[in-house]
Design brief:
single chain, about 400 residues, alpha+beta, 2 domains, five-stranded antiparallel β-sheet, 9 helices, globular, disordered N terminus, disordered C terminus
Length: about 400
């Protein structure tokens, strides 16, 4: 028996995503806008085998500045999030590829308070920096969220400082003191000392579900009609999800005036676009970029199919799991690390740990056991067993 194939690409999943709502000012009907958004994303799917959902959130202090300077700060939020993703993805230490980004602005939480954040849907790969091949990220792992968080914080605060120096920011009420350069610098220093939240994870139900979810709010503000429970005696009751309690649904009752005040917090300046595209999905050259992505993916798939066909022709045999060298549990790349000698008994002992963990004797030839291990040396859930002779020519 042969044994030992490491799963080198196993990575822990980041924290779950707290999903919110979306509304976009558009003269077209909400159905038309949602249809265009979803179809544009589906066309981009040919540029990546899977997608990731990344969320960039502003801290409360930065959100207060954004509320009083919506057009300027929301534009900075878009720019910082997109530059963070494209910069880290282009770094050869992480991915070394050009990626595409569909970014959507949300400005509220479940209770309709001001809570600005950006949802990004990103294909899991992209063309290499020289445009000669397709580079795919590891299944289940896109980019390190801690690195994304640090760069996002630096880029946002740098752009915010530039906007202040250019006189583009205004401060009122309890933020009026920030108009002084010294006070503003102190405020930025406080923001540098706290952690900024970035989530990155494959969407639970697939990218179409994420886009359908976002698209439903392209012509709404903050809340869907289905969440409204009642209006009586000047009180509005609506449902909301408490993500601090595992998404438990609760009811909130507000005075009608307070409900309207919260609702109006999320009106955007005229002409501001809530949905934007970056990287190879940017509007200017999207058609040419997607055509390049399709060519690179077709070439990649053709090469893989050719290698499998050659191996099949040389051995004149059926293809087994070892031909693909892909971990059946985590999808990572595997390699053989050791060989276990054959048993000398007349009836070889066979132990398949992938099923019921029972061992038995078999009259068939002893199998080769492919053990899939994580970088920490722990056995993955899946273990593949194939006939030993099939690895003789590997």
């Amino acid at each position: 028996m042969y044994s030992g194939i490491y799963c080198a690409d196993r990575r822990p999943d980041p924290a779950p995503i707290h999903r919110q709502s979306l509304w976009r000012r558009d003269r077209k009907g909400s159905g038309a806008v949602s249809f265009q958004l979803t179809n544009r994303f589906k066309r981009s799917r040919s540029a990546g085998p899977f997608h990731f959902h990344v969320v960039f959130t502003l801290p409360t202090q930065a959100g207060e500045i954004a509320f009083q300077n919506k057009a300027t700060v929301y534009a900075i939020l878009f720019r910082a999030a997109a530059e963070t993703l494209t910069t880290i993805a282009a770094d050869p230490r992480h991915l070394g590829a050009q990626i595409g980004v569909t970014a959507v602005l949300h400005t509220w939480g479940q209770t309709l308070q001001h809570h600005p954040h950006i949802h990004c849907v990103v294909p899991g790969g992209g063309p290499s920096l020289d445009g000669t091949r397709w580079i795919a990220c590891r299944p289940g792992f896109f980019l390190p969220v801690r690195v994304l968080s640090r760069l996002f914080r630096r880029l946002f605060l740098q752009n915010l400082q530039d906007a202040f120096d250019a006189g583009k920011l205004r401060f009122f009420g309890n933020l009026a003191g920030l108009a002084e350069p010294t006070a503003f610098a102190t405020g930025l220093d406080q923001l540098r000392r706290i952690e900024w939240v970035v989530y990155a994870k494959p969407p639970f139900g697939g990218p179409e579900q994420v886009l359908a979810y976002l698209g439903r709010y392209t012509h709404r503000v903050a809340i869907a009609n289905s969440r409204l429970v009642s209006l009586s005696d000047g009180k509005v009751r609506f449902a909301w999800k408490d993500y601090r309690q595992d998404g438990k649904t609760r009811l909130m009752t507000l005075d009608a005036d307070e409900f309207i005040r919260r609702f109006l917090l999320h009106a955007l300046p005229d002409g501001f676009h809530r949905i934007r595209y970056y990287g190879f999905l940017a509007n200017g050259q999207r058609g040419d970029n997607l055509a390049l992505c399709r060519r690179l993916l077709d070439a990649r798939h053709a090469t893989a199919n050719s290698e499998l066909a050659d191996a099949h022709a040389k051995g004149d045999r059926q293809n087994y799991a070892s031909d693909f060298l892909i971990c059946p549990d985590c999808g990572g790349t595997m390699r053989r690390i050791a060989a276990v000698p054959r048993s000398s008994t007349d009836q070889p002992f066979y132990c398949d740990t992938s099923s019921s963990h029972r061992c038995r004797f078999s009259s068939s030839p002893p199998p080769t056991l492919l053990r899939v291990l994580s970088p920490t040396g722990q056995l993955c859930r899946s273990t593949a067993a194939i006939p030993a002779p099939e690895l003789a020519n590997d």
